[in-house]
Design a protein that fits this description.
mainly beta, eight-stranded antiparallel beta barrel, globular, 8 strands, 166 residues
């Protein structure tokens, strides 16, 4: 498995059960407060600094409030995820969790569209929230205070829209 997909799978589905905190107990908000950003919907080619080989990320509007997301490295079954978008001040975040696991925890990803064809994902560092993990409002407040700290939100993926050939 290439590094990029392995990182995504570990991050999103929490495959390594250790004492280390890798996920959040709650999404950033309820489904009723989530939204769909039309420019986020589509197919993206994403790569990281560690693995410049692009993987395909497909983001679909599931029901007007939730996303269905697939991370596909092209060699095996894609990772299938549920996603909820919420705003924290002027930033947007996805709370995601795997559909293929019984794990109830969420991974928080910051995302930013610089234009309709360029997307950046950042990973929210769960251990920075260990003392407030059980309180979604406190997680959101701390994230608002620290979201610009590169140790709290680390760069994960850089994506370009995957446009059909021809």
């Amino acid at each position: 498995m290439r590094g990029n997909a392995r990182v995504l799978l570990l991050v999103v589905t929490c495959l390594i059960p250790t004492a280390c905190i890798t996920d959040f107990k709650h999404p950033l908000g309820p489904v009723e407060e989530a939204f769909i950003e039309p420019n986020l919907v589509g197919s993206w080619k994403c790569s990281s600094a560690d693995d410049p080989t692009p993987n395909v990320v497909r983001i679909m509007d599931f029901d007007g409030k939730q996303y269905y997301i697939e991370f596909d490295e092209g060699k095996s079954e894609p990772a299938r995820l549920r996603g909820l978008a919420h705003r924290v001040e002027d930033a947007t975040f996805l709370s995601v969790r795997g559909l293929q696991t019984k794990d109830e925890e969420w991974t928080l990803l910051a995302y930013a569209l610089s234009d309709s064809d360029h997307l950046e994902f950042g990973l929210v560092d769960a251990p920075s929230f260990e003392d407030v993990m059980d309180d979604p409002l406190s997680v959101k407040q701390r994230l608002a205070e620290q979201m610009h700290d590169p140790e709290v939100v680390t760069s994960l993926l850089s994506c370009v829209r995957d446009k059909p050939q021809g």
